[in-house]
Design goal:
Distance between the termini: 37 Å
Order of helices and strands: HEEEEEEEEEEEEHHHEEEEEEEEEEEEE
Strand content: over 45%
Shape: elongated
Number of strands: 25
Number of helices: 4
Helix content: 10-25%
Number of domains: 2
Largest sheet: 12 strands, antiparallel
Length: 407
């Protein structure tokens, strides 16, 4: 089976499992009667606010769904909490081509799940959909209401801003540590608003309760990466015919490769993305013999240090297992590598020095317990005779790579 077919087969397998990265995690929900139920909640990791929740009472239990009408509150411990809100929201568009000419928001009564950002004497919430972000708040003397911010175009396509949220917070979050200048420079963004609410609650000796998933692991991994590599090489010279003895299609050869991978986990998107670099030693040796041509043998001896640099995306299966996909740019540094042509029964010979251009590689793999890994990687064709204008070469490889993470 061709290397491309093997890779396509593995990627097809991956596509059938892509949704299994959604896991059930410990949480709870509160029904309309105020009864709290401990359960496992499906964590889809979505940025948008939900309208329902899927849960199981046990790992082996039946998956069930509850709608917003039957749930007052639910959460995944140490990560996220939602409360049901029945009130008004302004859905005025923030897209430049869809801005309205009026300054005032257009409120509509709805039932929503609001995400709790800070819970304290003064609490902050958010509601997010594609192209829509709204913040809500309340203090000990008020009900939940929207912080008003709206862009509009009254005339001449000049964009104006209704920043009523600044006046709302100035009126309701009075504290000696909050100045007029801080309110004036306050942005309608999560970080800016949460910083202000923290300051207000600290000023009133009230604990700030937040919901954010704790990091469970280090952000840096160092992994040993030995493996097997099936490589092939084809060379052609544009100055000779296709049947010339200087052109050769070498056989697939199974060889050994060894790499050391450094991985930096990105501190966002639930640790699903990382940056990787993997210095790797690889070699390829092969030869072709001819009995009826002027060139009696062509031998290739190719040794190099590859330097793949790229990104990885993880697809979580459960707490101990995950799939991943890699995209890499591969730089190659060859040493004492050449192709030798034996002429007229090895009476004389001539050779070419191998120098490579960068190429691209893709990989799919599996990791268990953040310790053991297995990857299938395909390096697309690269030119190893980069310094010779008349020569065309295609070197490609399919690797099966084993991983053992040291730390």
């Amino acid at each position: 089976m061709k290397k491309q077919q093997l890779l396509i087969l593995f990627i097809t397998f991956l596509s059938f499992n892509i949704y299994s990265q959604i896991t059930f995690e410990k949480g709870y929900f509160v029904n309309n009667d105020g009864q709290k139920t401990e359960c496992l909640i499906k964590n889809i990791g979505a940025r948008t606010n939900p309208t329902s929740l899927d849960y199981k009472l046990t790992n082996e239990g039946e998956e069930k769904m509850l709608t917003i009408k039957s749930v007052k509150e639910f959460g995944i411990y140490d990560e996220v909490k939602y409360i049901r809100f029945e009130g008004e929201i302004d859905r005025s568009s923030n897209i430049i081509n869809s801005l309205t000419p009026t300054k005032e928001p257009k409120f509509k009564k709805e039932i929503l799940f609001l995400k709790v950002l800070i819970e304290s004497k003064a609490s902050l919430y958010s509601y997010e959909e594609p192209n829509l972000l709204r913040f809500f708040y309340k203090n000990e003397n008020s009900k939940i209401g929207q912080l008003v911010f709206k862009r509009y175009t009254p005339e001449n396509d000049v964009i104006q801003k209704n920043e009523r949220y600044k006046q709302q917070l100035l009126n309701d979050l009075k504290c000696e540590n909050i100045t007029m200048n801080q309110i004036k420079n306050l942005e309608y963004k999560k970080n800016s608003l949460t910083s202000l609410f923290r300051k207000y609650n600290d000023c009133n000796n009230s604990e700030n309760i937040t919901f954010k998933k704790k990091q469970k692991r280090d952000i840096f991994n160092l992994t040993l990466r030995p493996g097997l590599k099936s490589s092939s090489l084809k060379i052609e010279n544009s100055n000779y015919s296709a049947r010339s003895s200087r052109n050769a299609d070498f056989d697939n050869k199974l060889g050994f490769r060894f790499g050391m991978e450094a991985e930096l986990i990105m501190p966002y998107h639930r640790n699903k993305w990382s940056f990787i670099i993997e210095p790797t030693y690889q070699y390829y040796k092969s030869e072709k013999e001819f009995s009826d041509r002027s060139v009696t043998k062509i031998a290739v001896d190719y040794k190099s240090i590859e330097l793949p640099i790229g990104i990885r995306h993880y697809l979580f299966l459960n707490n101990n297992s995950k799939l991943f996909v890699n995209g890499l740019v591969v730089f190659d540094f060859s040493s004492s590598s050449n192709i030798v042509f034996d002429l007229d029964g090895a009476v004389t010979s001539e050779g070419l020095e191998l120098k490579s251009s960068p190429n691209v590689a893709f990989g799919v793999g599996y990791k268990h317990n953040d310790k053991y890994g297995l990857e299938l990687r395909y390096n697309i064709k690269r030119n190893v005779l980069n310094e010779y204008a008349a020569w065309i070469s295609n070197y490609s490889a399919l690797s099966l790579i084993f991983g053992y993470t040291l730390f």
